[in-house]
Amino acid sequence: MKNQSEKNALLNHIGTHVRALRLAENLTVKQFAAKSSLSPRFINQLESGEGNISIAGLARVAAALSKPLIEIIPPPPGDHSVRARTWRLLSECADDQLQELNQWLDERNHKTALPRFIALIGLRGAGKSTVGPMLAKGLKTEFVELDKWIEEAATMPLGEIFTTHGEGYYRRLERQALLKLFSSSDGCVLAPGGSIVTDQESWEMIKQRCFTVWLHATPEEFMRRMHKQGDTRAMQGRPRAMEELKDLLSLREPLYAESQVFIKTTKKSPAKIVELIMRQAKQR
C-alpha cells in the first residue's frame, strides 16, 4: 500500500510540474499533445497524476517543452537530500547564473571549458565538410562525417541505401552510428546529415551529448555553393528547385533552431566561422 501511495504521489508531482511548464510555454493541451506525439486524453491524464508515462514518453514531453529530460522529473517535496536541494536552487537560476556556475565548476575540477562533442547542424551546402576539419584541427580532435560511417556499415553509397532499403533502414543505421560514436570516442567534431533533425531519437541524442551549432545560409547561398562544388543533383530536372529548397528550409529551420548556437555563414570565411564557434563554445 505504501508503494502504491508513493507511486501516486510521484505521478501527481510530475503531472503538476509538466502542467506548469506547459502553461509557461502558452501551449494548449491540444497543441502540447501534437508537439509531443501524445493524445490530448493522455496529456490530461498525465497532468492530473493518472497517466503512468514511460521514459520514452517523458523524452517526447521534454522535447515538446524544449527542456532537457532531467528538468521534467523534479525531486519530490519530501526529498531534502543535498542533490534535491541543489536541483531546486539550480531550477531558480537564470541562464547567466548557470553559465557562471558551470565555468566555476569547470575551473574547480580542472576541466576544459570546451565541450567534448561539437555537432555542426544544417543542410547540405551549409559548410559542415569545410568548417568541420578546420574546427577539429584547432581543437586537436577528430572530424566525423556520420554519413560515411553509415555508408561503411551498409557497404554501399548513401543513394543506394535509400533506393535499395528505404529511409527506415537509413535511420536505424544512423542511430547505431551515433551510439557507436558516443560509446567509443573521447570527443570529436561531428557532421551529421542535414535531415537528422527530423528523426526525434537521433536529434535528442545529439542535443543531449553535443554542443550544437547551426550553420545557416540563405537558399541562394546553398544553391551557389552546390553549383560551385559541381553538385547539380538538387537542380537536375527540377525547375522548382529553389522553391523546393525554401520549402525544405521552412520545415527544418524550427528544428535547426533548437541548436545551442546559430551562425549565419553567408559572406563569412570558413576561418571566421571556426573562430566564432570556438568563441561560443568557450563561453558556453
Q: Could you describe the largest sheet, including whether it forms a barrel?
A: 5 strands, parallel
CATH topology of the largest domain: Rossmann fold
Annotated CATH homologous superfamily of the largest domain: P-loop containing nucleotide triphosphate hydrolases
**First-residue to last-residue Cα separation:** 46 Å
Query: What's the β-strand tally?
Result: 5
Per CATH, which architecture of the largest domain? 3-Layer(aba) Sandwich
Determine the number of helices (DSSP H or I, runs of at least 4 residues): 14
CATH top-level class of the largest domain: Alpha Beta
How many structural domains are formed by the residues? 2
Strand order of the largest sheet: 2-3-1-4-5
Structural class: alpha/beta
Q: Please provide the ordered H/E string of secondary-structure elements.
A: HHHHHHEHEHHHEHEHHEH
Q: Which of globular, elongated, flat, extended, rod-shaped describes the shape?
A: globular
β-sheet strand percentage: 5-15%
The helix fraction, in percent, is 55-70%
What radius of gyration results from the CA coordinates? 21 Å
